[in-house]
Amino acid sequence: LDPLAVHQSGLDEITALEHEYRDMAAVALGTTDVATIYDPLRNHPAIRFSTAEEVEEPAARALARANEAVPEWFGRLPKAPCVVQRVPEVGADDAPIAYYLDPAQDGSRPGTFFINVAQPTTRTRYESEVLAFHESVPGHHFQIAIGQELEGIPLFRRNATATAFVEGWGLYTERLADEMGLYSGDLERFGILSFDSWRAGRLVVDTGIHALGWSRQEAIDYLVANSPQAENNIVNEVERYIAWPGQALAYKTGQREMFAARNRAIAIMGDRFDIRGFHDALLGSGSVPMRTMHRLIDEWTTSAP
Predict the structure, then answer these.
(1) C-alpha closest to that of 136 among 66, 58, 57
(2) What is the DSSP string of 19-73?
(3) What residues have CB less than 8 Å from 282, skipping those under 6 apart?
(4) Among 94-98, 155-159, 236-240, 268-272, the least confident range
C-alpha cells in the first residue's frame, strides 16, 4: 500500500470517529466538543479502577456474556475453552494491559486471556469490556483456537500468524461485540471509539514517522490531540512504532478489509447473506493474507445456499 494513501486514510478515519464521539457524547456526556469529550475519558478519576479485583471482575463478566451470545453469530465454535487469568506479578509493571495466550495444541491448556491488574488506578473502566472482547471471545481466542482445530491443512498453517488477519480480526470483533449487544452501557461503548482512535491514529503517525519525516514529539502530539488515550501510553506506543516500522498498521488495515469483504458479500448475496456463515468462511482457513481472505469470501458468496 502507498504510505501517503495509508496516511490519508488514517486522517479520514479520525475525522469520521469524531462524528461518532459527538453523537455518543451528546447523550452520555452532554457535550459535542471533541476536546471536552477526550478530557474526562483521559483524566477523570471516576473512570479508573481502584483495586485489582475491580480490574479482573468486569473482564470475567464480559467473557461470560460473550460465550452465551456467540452461537447466534458463529456456526463453528472452538473446542478449547478460554479462561481469564491475572498477569503474573513478576514483570507486570512493564507488561501490556492484557494479552492472549494460545491453547496448547494437544488440548492440555485452555486459551488464556491475561489481564494486568497491576497499578489499577491507571486502568480505565470504560475500556475494560472492549479489551476483553478483543483478547478473548469473540476476538483472538475464537480466531486462534478455531485455526488450531482445523482439519485438512498443514500444522504450520493451523498456527500461522498473518498480522493483518490476526489483529484485524481482534479489532473487527470490538465493533461486532456492539452488534451482538455485549456492551453493558453507554460509557463502555466509548471504549470502542477510544480503541478505534488508537488504531486509526497509528495509520497517521507510523507513516508520518517513516515516510513523512515526523519527529517523535510530533507523533506524540498528534495522538494526544486526536485520541483519549493517556499520554504515558501514547509515549510507549510511539516508541514502539519507531522501533517496529509498519507492524502497527496491520490492525486497522485488517479490520477495514474484513468489513469491506462483509459489505461486498451482503451486496452480492442480499437476503442469502448469513452472518454465521460469513464468520465461518472468514475463520475456516486459518490466518491468511488479505488477498486470500477476499478470494475465500468471494468463493463463499457464490457457493453458499
Answers:
(1) 66
(2) HHHHHHHHHHTS---HHHHHHHHHH-GGGB--SHHHHHHHHHHHHHHHHHHGGGT
(3) 169, 258, 261, 293, 296, 297
(4) 94-98
> Residue 112 is inside which H or E element, if any?
strand 111-115
- Cell, residue 130: 472492549
Asked if 55 and 49 count as a contact pair (C-beta separation under 8 A), the reply is: yes
Average pLDDT over residues 271-295: 97
Please write the tens of the pLDDT for every residue from 118-135. Answer: 989 988 999 999 999 999
Do the Cβ atoms of 167 and 144 come closer than 8 Å? no
- What burial class does residue 270 get, using C-beta atoms within 10 Å of its C-beta: 0-12 exposed, 13-18 middle, 19+ buried? exposed
Any idea which residue has 486459518 for its cell? 286
* Cα-based distances in Å from 9 to 4, 258, 295: 9, 16, 23
Alpha helical stretches, state H, the chain: 3-28, 34-43, 52-69, 128-135, 140-149, 155-158, 163-179, 186-211, 216-226, 231-243, 249-269, 275-283, 290-303
Average pLDDT over residues 42-59: 93
b or e along 105-128 (b: 16 or more beta carbons within 10 Å of the residue's beta carbon)?
eeeeebbbbbbbbbebeebbbbbb
Give 215-223 contacts, CB < 8 A, sequence gap 24+. Answer: 216/242, 223/198
Element (H, E) at 114: strand 111-115
